[in-house]
Write a structure and sequence with these properties.
mainly alpha; about 120 residues; single chain
Amino acid sequence: MATSKAREDIKNDLNTLKEDLKVGAREEAARLKAKAAQAEARLREKAAEADARIRERTEVLREQARDYYDQARVRSREYYDDAAERFDEAQRYVTERVQERPIQSTAIALGVGVVLGLLLAGRRR
């Protein structure tokens, strides 16, 4: 009888231990879930902060790009206007010289045409 009582006591102790382990495991799982939730919240917060910084930086870069584009557009317009003015001046100069000396201009144009024709024909051979 003593052995069966000892067995019964050991069995009860094991069941108690088993229940204690289950409770401990549930408590530990709950504690780990809480820590995981805290870590997830911190990660989400950090991700939101990083996203905000990236958006701010993107906006700054976008503004810089717009400024550079506007400056380039203004400069290119200035260069275009300058080149157009110089082209008009050159065209007026050539027109005046041709009108002053039409025969000489025609002879020069004919000579340039012959030289170019010979150069282009020489390349084909």
